[in-house]
């Protein structure tokens, strides 16, 4: 479902519908959301994929949490994120789309 939502967001014709939906659900003024996403593709801004920069910052936070005694042991953000699961879900979603189109 998350990847289907991502696919929907990636289509520019859904931009206004997304902004209107979030505005209503979050009680945010439309103008704030329009300003936040101006000049940015929604599909990129709201991607469920965790890039290397994000995972690096998360690793730094994990190390800090360990130093301050907030967690017992360190772990790898990349392993925790399990990118292979997202990749498998993407392949499954594409296969379903092909099967439905046939």
Q: Concise description?
A:
With 102 residues, the chain is mostly helical. It has helices at residues 2-10, 15-26, 30-37, 42-45, 52-67, 77-81, 83-101.
Task: Give an account of the 3D structure.
It comes from Pseudomonas aeruginosa. This is Nitrate ABC transporter substrate-binding protein. The protein is an all-alpha fold and 102 residues long. The chain folds into two domains: 1-48, no CATH class; 50-102, no CATH class. The chain has helices at 2-10, 15-26, 30-37, 42-45, 52-67, 77-81, 83-101. The protein is flat, with a radius of gyration of 18 Å. The two termini are 21 Å apart.
Figure out the total of helices: 7
* SSE-based structural type: mainly alpha
Q: Any low-confidence stretches, pLDDT <50, length ≥5? A: none
Main β-sheet description: none
The share of residues in helices is over 70%
Q: What is the total number of structural domains?
A: 2
How far apart the termini lie comes to 21 Å
- Output the helix-strand order: HHHHHHH
Overall geometry: flat
Number of strands: 0
**What value does the Rg take, in angstroms?**
18 Å
- Mean of residue pLDDT values: 88
The percentage of residues in β strands lies in under 5%
Protein name: Nitrate ABC transporter substrate-binding protein
